[in-house]
Design goal:
The complex is a heterodimer.
Chain A: H1 18-34, E1 37-39, H2 42-50, E2 54-56, E3 59-61, H3 64-73, E4 78-81, E5 88-91, E6 97-98, E7 106-108, E8 115-117, H4 122-132, H5 153-164, H6 176-190, H7 193-198, E9 204-207, E10 213-214, H8 216-227, E11 232-236, H9 248-269, E12 275-279, E13 283-285, E14 290-292, H10 296-312, E15 316-319, H11 330-345, E16 350-352, E17 356-357, E18 362-363, H12 365-382, H13 389-392, H14 394-400, H15 410-419, H16 431-436, H17 442-456, H18 466-481
Parallel strand pairs in A: 1-10, 6-16, 7-18, 9-11, 11-12, 12-15, 15-16
Antiparallel strand pairs in A: 1-3, 2-3, 4-5, 7-8, 13-14, 17-18
Chain B: H1 3-13, H2 17-29, H3 34-54, H4 60-77, H5 83-86, E1 90-96, H6 104-115, E2 118-122, H7 129-139, E3 143-147, H8 155-166, E4 174-178, H9 184-189, E5 194-195, H10 199-210
Parallel strand pairs in B: 1-2, 1-3, 3-4, 4-5
Helix pairs in contact in B: 1-2, 1-3, 2-4, 3-4, 4-6, 6-10, 7-8
The chains are: A alpha/beta, B alpha/beta.
The structure holds cobalamin.
């Protein structure tokens, strides 16, 4: 959703004041200078050392100018294109886009509704459903396949996803070899390297650890990606009370320090590289010791991170549409909806994890379908209220006068679709009609919609011969693994 | 029970390590025997911590600071107690398997075990099978605990068990496994002795295994 604050009068929402943002940012700079980060990749350490950082074994203490320079260098916006050339995501200030998350161990079987290990085909179905849903803007796999050569799971996943959606895709990778395979698949789809560079249809999703660690594998992957013009989403962040201090402010510092030190490495490798920073700053439930994806802190701290990133001019990825609930129940609906609303209000550029149940353990297409409707509703809220002579309608009010009605007014017919949001899953029928239609509840309607999409939706086809090329790349990868 | 032992138990429950150490010293000066202070002060308090945690009334960090307070009291008593009274609950070797960097759960299991009086040796993350085997030989633990959070790294637990067999030490150590994607069925399938879904259960199982 693209939001233009100056033309429309948007709902205003902020978690942090300018002064608070400044304070968190300065504290983060101090943390990076004083405590530093552990960087388990030699190239990254060398880049930072050359820029003036103090390297002591794997520990790197980064002076503020290096971070400030990276913040100045990173583009404030970049564009991802769907391979169909139609879907265009401007990862830019004021825009908000939603999509699923990666790698859940389990998947809710779309046929039986049961939880089972994720398997081949599931990421493909996820991409297909993303393709069909109007308010889902990009695809991620929502599950980690358990029935392929384990080290190749990210490659199989990407292959399935590009075949099933024309929208942009966010793959992830265990290893550089995975990234190389994914890149070959992308090349097969795009045809030529220039096309991929000019209109990237995927961004590499990678993670850093909290507190204050960058791993060898992830750095290898993202360094290669920026060198090859692939946009990077680099996400991590502290879990309050476990991998970050128990306070919100402390959790922001840990999340921001990880993100900004990563940004510095990437900008030193390739100045101007397209990077979106991400955080999953949830709180730990300290009774069960499980991260509380659906907790209010996740929404609050993510919105605060969005405030800070907007201030710095760096695109930000947050989280929404996720829950601790084990099935699509009331808890799932409430937790995921609050997150969607706050993500939109805080203008989070990319929002991921839509469709997560059980704290990132279960991928649910049903939750994805439900969230599509929630996002539609929230988009209506985000459009705000247009106030001008035209919309105040004083002439019409005068014409109709006291005791009249507006339903038959020409203006109402002309504007009703644009002004008033119309649901497709929520029920608004009179009781009798609802009963006559089978007394269906929301879960029934969600399942029916999902079944319909799976049975009828066809994604834009891959160019001729590309499916075979992808198959060959997978076979080669298999042969290499043996 | 005497007032001072009650105060030790209460302060231990609140995680006041300095106070517990001072009170333990004071109780000794008042003439209580180290054995009495241990049983009716420290262990009495820690048992209440365990009960309330299980009931859901205490949070993990509260348990961890209580365990630290227990240690502070123990540090005062240890030189005075007979060897037989301070024996640890058991030795526990723990690590996250090769290829896996997740350690929040493993660390929590370690801390809870330490709180329960186990002597824990932590090998960290991304621990190779050879390293596990060498450490089993070196530390002769009662239990070896392995953590895996990724489907791709779960098989590494099986590799370690096989390596223990090959090195001829499998029957010298009980093997426990855990981590979000690990299940009891998987534990059985790879020939582990126990599985626990969370840290509190891990402690319970560990106690049973060393009995
Ligand atoms: C935090 C986290 C991370 C952090 C790790 C930080 C750290 N220092 O550990 C970061 C961001 C670095 C990360 C990285 C990755 N992660 Co991760 N991560 C998680 C997350 C959200 C929480 C894990 C956690 O800490 N939980 C809290 C602790 C307390 O719980 P726990 O670990 O389960 O431990 C408890 C029990 O399992 C048990 N236990 C644990 N160990 C042991 C050992 C013994 C002996 C016993 C008895 C019991 C026991 O007791 C513990 C305490 O109660 C999970 C989701 C989830 N729901 O588990 C994903 C998750 C585990 N990650 C996942 C993945 C795929 C990855 C990545 C590949 C990146 C990605 N998503 O693309 C990388 C891999 C890095 C690597 N090589 O290891 C997937 C795994 C899917 C699968 N089946 O393989 C999960 C399930 C989520 C997801 N959808 O992405 N991750």
């Amino acid at each position: 959703m693209s939001i233009n604050d100056s033309i429309q009068q948007m709902p205003q929402f902020r978690v942090l004041s300018d002064r608070q943002i400044e304070e968190v940012y300065l504290a983060t700079l101090e943390c990076l200078k004083r405590t530093g980060v552990e960087i388990r990749n030699a190239t990254a350490r060398e880049l930072l050392a050359a820029a003036g950082a103090r390297v002591d074994g794997a520990r790197v203490r980064i002076p503020p100018p290096v971070i400030q320079d990276a913040v100045a260098a990173v583009p404030r916006s970049f564009t991802l294109w769907g391979r169909d050339g139609e879907h265009r995501l401007d990862i830019a200030p004021g825009c908000v886009y939603f999509g699923p998350g990666p790698t859940c161990t389990y998947f809710v079987d779309p046929e039986t509704g049961e939880r089972r290990p994720t398997r081949r085909g599931d990421p493909g179905l996820t991409a297909l459903v993303c393709d069909a849903l109007e308010n889902i803007d990009y695809a991620m796999g929502l599950g980690l396949m358990s029935d392929v050569t384990p080290t190749l799971a990210p490659v199989y996943e990407f292959a399935e996803m590009v075949a099933n959606t024309g929208k942009p895709v966010l793959p992830w990778a265990y290893s550089l070899q995975n990234v190389l395979d994914i890149y070959r698949i992308a090349l097969a789809v795009a045809g030529r390297e220039e096309v991929l560079r000019q209109r990237p249809f995927f961004a590499l999703f990678a993670t850093f650890q909290a507190p204050l660690v960058h791993t060898e594998e992830d750095l290898c992957n993202v360094l290669w990606a920026v060198e090859h013009g692939i946009p990077v989403v680099y996400l991590g962040g502290g879990t309050a009370g476990a991998t970050a201090p128990v306070t919100g402010a402390g959790t922001l510092v840990i999340s921001l320090a990880g993100a900004l030190s990563g940004l510095a490495i990437l900008q030193l490798q390739k100045r101007g590289a397209a990077v979106c920073l991400g955080a999953v700053p949830q709180a730990m439930d300290l009774r069960t010791a499980r991260p509380a994806y659906g907790g209010p802190e996740m929404s609050l701290y993510s919105a605060a991170m969005a405030d800070i990133c907007r201030y710095l001019g760096v695109p930000f990825m947050g989280t929404a549409g996720a829950s601790e609930a084990k099935v699509l129940d009331l808890q799932a609906a409430i937790e995921s909806t609050v997150q969607v609303l706050l993500s939109a209000l805080s203008r989070t550029a990319l929002v991921h994890d839509v469709g997560f149940l059980d704290g990132a353990d279960i991928g649910s297409l049903e939750l994805l379908v439900m969230s599509d409707e929630v996002i539609a509703m929230v988009k209506r809220i985000m459009r705000g209220i247009e106030v001008n002579a035209d919309t105040l309608m004083l002439d019409l009010i005068d014409q109709v006068g006291p005791g009249g009605e507006f339903m038959s007014a020409r203006e109402t017919a002309r504007r009703c679709r644009a002004e008033i949001w119309h649901p497709t899953l929520w029920d608004r029928e009179p009781w009798e009609n609802w009963e006559a239609a089978g007394s269906l509840g929301m879960p029934d309607r969600i399942r029916a919609r999902l079944r319909e999409i799976l049975a009828t939706h066809t994604p834009p086809p891959l160019p001729r011969g590309v499916a075979e090329e992808i198959e060959a790349i997978l076979m080669e990868a298999e042969a290499r693994e043996k | 029970m005497s007032e001072i032992l009650q105060k030790i138990a209460a302060n231990l429950y609140e995680g006041e390590e300095d106070v517990v150490a001072a009170l333990t010293q004071e109780a000794l000066e008042q003439g209580f025997s180290p054995e009495e202070i241990l049983a009716d002060g420290l262990i009495f308090g820690m048992d209440r911590v365990g009960r309330d945690f299980k009931a859901g009334d205490l949070f993990v960090p509260e348990v961890l600071v209580a365990a630290r307070a227990m240690q502070a009291g123990m540090d005062v008593l240890r030189p005075l107690l007979a060897e037989s009274d301070v024996h640890s609950a058991g030795t526990y070797l723990i690590g996250t398997v090769a290829g896996d960097l997740h350690d929040i759960g493993k660390n929590l299991v370690r801390m809870m075990l330490e709180g329960a009086g186990f002597q824990v040796v932590d090998l960290g993350v991304d621990v190779k099978a050879e390293t596990f085997v060498a450490a089993v030989k070196e530390h002769k633990p009662h239990i070896l605990g392995m953590s895996a959070l990724l489907t791709t790294t779960m098989p590494a637990m099986k590799t370690v068990i096989e390596a223990l067999e090959q090195a001829g030490v499998r029957d010298k150590v009980k093997v426990m496994v855990g981590g979000a994607p690990v299940t009891a069925a998987y534990a059985e399938q790879i020939g582990a002795d126990a599985y626990a879904p969370d840290a509190a259960t891990a402690v319970e199982m560990a106690r049973k295994l060393v009995e």
